[in-house]
Specification:
Strand content: 5-15%
Structural class: alpha/beta
Organism: Crassostrea virginica
Number of helices: 22
Strand order of the largest sheet: 6-5-4-9-11-10
CATH topology of one domain: Rossmann fold
Keywords: GTP-binding, Nucleotide-binding, Phosphoprotein
Distance between the termini: 64 Å
Number of strands: 12
Shape: globular
Helix content: 40-55%
Protein name: Guanine nucleotide-binding protein-like 1
Function: Possible regulatory or functional link with the histocompatibility cluster.
GO molecular function: GTP binding; GTPase activity
Length: about 575
């Protein structure tokens, strides 16, 4: 180790002066126009880890999520509005959404496609060509849209390379979407590329169907089939017994009950048999899927308690349709739509680690579901779109621990769900009890849960907002978007034949919310503690800000005679 060089006071003074000069330059540059800012936007590398290249290991940040970093003045402006502007409830029709408002088909909001290549090219030549293409791709988007107008989207070329590889080796592509926000997770550009350019079949898996009303799930299915006729749709839930949608009115349907399942939470899944039927229809007699069918029926007959981890394999050979009589199924989707959980649900046991933190899966991995069926899990990708960033955060696309200002996101949620009534909150300001701001909701939740700052003992509104966002992510607070025209025809979908069939299918997993607030809230902290345990056991690297949120508890409660 080389000897440390002395660092004089004069050198230290010059260092501080240079640091102040750079800070002044940054402050001045923040006053530039949006167009100038868009061209020089700084990238934010989510969950970046320290690197020690001397160890000879690969860069752990190679597959990290990359987004555009927001300006400080924009963050402060949103925080001020969240503290001063009252919440104005939205109409039910405002929950309806379509593809034109999110992806604008035919515009520059396309997906990056791998440039032409062949085996005669060296690795350096291929990397150089892909980097130049990707820079041109991002530059074209930024010329048409400002960083403020664009939603978060993936800026890491290495992650897009994982998608390219999965698309190349897969015979059938599974696109997984969350039933609460399917339009947000479905890129028409990807659909067109797979079906028209690659000439491969795409199966849309509407996941987490236990989180939405049955009628809404069926309505989304028919809306997508009408819009994309070549699409095949499967309804799926990896662990319906852990969280079942509650019955009742609108308020009860936005509040959920969680029950702890058995040791093997993936042993009973809704949808594997339906997925098998669709794959049989696609491959015909080219691949023998009998072993997969036997596996599904065996799991339906009895639960498997094994949670052994199957080591993933990596495919390196060139593509050949149904190579070796094996069907390769690629799993693609946004972060937090449940791709890894779907793999575990199909296997009937845990084979890949799962985390609520976006970007947990960093490299595509292949797992044999049966001797003739191979699953390939791609890391979560955020496609370019025009959508409110608050909705992306609620959907789990952006890590909650990295949110610099969560109050405006709570405001977005409160405009569409009556949070004060749902959470039974008391206004922190008695004189203004009828007008709620997003900050008031966070303060009221902090008072209810006992969240206070360490020194001043003020209500910890930031911590409360963080927990509310996590509750929305896992479905404790359920915000579901609707297809166009659903509100006017809601009664039709409620009495639809497929709605009745789906209700019967999920009936055995249903848990009715009895309205007991204490039992509902008591599982909040256990759930987040469990998430922390899962992440640490699976090797997930997270920032220090994403720690388990523990509600305030009275250590002398056991001495009370009330209970």
């Amino acid at each position: 180790m080389p000897r440390k060089k002395p660092f004089s006071s004069k050198q230290k003074k010059l260092q501080l002066q240079e640091k102040r000069r750079r800070k002044r330059d940054d402050d001045n540059s923040s006053e530039d126009s949006d167009e100038e800012q868009a061209s020089t936007s700084e990238r934010l590398e989510v969950n970046k880890q320290p690197v020690n290249f001397a160890s000879g290991k690969n860069d752990p940040n190679r597959y990290r999520l990359h987004f555009f970093k927001e300006r400080k003045d924009e963050v402060e402006e949103r925080k001020l509005r969240a503290k001063t502007e009252p919440i104005i409830p939205k109409k039910q029709t405002d929950l309806e959404i379509d593809f034109e408002t999110v992806y604008r088909p035919g515009s520059v909001l396309d997906i990056p496609k791998r440039p032409p290549w062949d085996y005669s090219m060296s690795k350096q030549q291929l990397d150089s060509r892909e980097e130049k293409y990707f820079q041109k791709y991002v530059g074209g988007i930024m010329e048409e849209h400002t960083a403020k107008e664009l939603s978060y989207f993936e800026m890491n070329l290495e992650t897009w390379r994982q998608l390219w590889r999965v698309l190349e080796i897969s015979d059938v592509l599974l696109l997984i979407v969350d039933v609460r926000t399917p339009v947000l997770h479905f890129s028409p550009a990807l659909y067109n590329y797979v079906t028209k350019s690659l000439h491969k079949s795409m199966i849309l898996v509407i996941n987490k169907i236990d989180l939405a009303p049955r009628a809404l799930t069926v309505a989304w299915k028919h809306y997508l089939l009408k819009r994309f006729p070549e699409l095949k749709i499967v309804l799926f839930s990896a662990n319906p017994s852990e969280a079942a949608y509650s019955k009742g009115g609108d308020l009860q349907q936005q509040r959920r009950v969680f029950k702890r399942g058995k040791i093997n939470r993936y042993s009973q899944s809704v949808g594997p048999l339906q997925l098998l039927r669709v794959c049989q229809e696609i491959v015909g007699n080219k691949v023998d899927l009998s072993a997969w069918e036997e596996k599904i029926h065996a799991e339906l007959d009895e639960d498997e308690n094994s949670i052994d981890e199957t080591p993933p394999t990596e495919e390196k050979d060139g593509y050949e349709m149904f190579k070796g009589g094996v069907l390769t199924i690629g799993c693609v989707g946004y972060p937090n739509v449940g791709k890894s959980s779907l793999l575990n649900g199909l296997m009937g046991k845990k084979v890949v680690s799962v985390s609520k933190t976006p970007g947990h899966t960093k490299h595509f991995q292949t797992i044999f579901l049966a001797p003739t069926v191979k699953l390939c899990d791609c890391p979560g990708l955020v496609f370019p779109s025009i959508v409110d960033k608050s909705l992306q955060i609620i959907a789990g696309i952006y890590p909650i621990a990295q949110v610099r200002e969560p109050f405006s996101v709570i405001g977005y949620l409160a405009e569409r769900i009556n949070l004060p009534k749902l959470l039974k909150l008391k206004h922190p300001d008695i004189d203004d009890g009828d007008q709620w701001t997003p900050f008031d909701i966070c303060e009221a939740w902090a008072l209810k849960k006992g969240f206070f700052t360490a020194k001043a003992a003020r209500p910890d509104a930031y911590r409360a907002a963080n927990q509310l966002l996590r509750m929305a992510l896992v479905g404790r607070i359920c915000l579901c978007l609707r297809p166009q025209g659903y509100t006017a025809n809601e009664e039709f979908w409620n009495h639809h034949q497929e709605t009745k069939q789906l209700s019967e299918e999920l009936h055995k997993y249903e848990v009715t919310d009895d309205g007991d607030e204490s039992s509902d809230d008591s599982t909040d902290d256990d759930e987040f503690q469990q998430e922390k345990g899962e992440n640490s056991s699976s090797g997930s690297e997270e920032e220090a800000g994403e720690r388990p949120i523990v509600g305030g508890r009275n250590p002398f409660a056991a001495l009370s005679g009330d209970n």
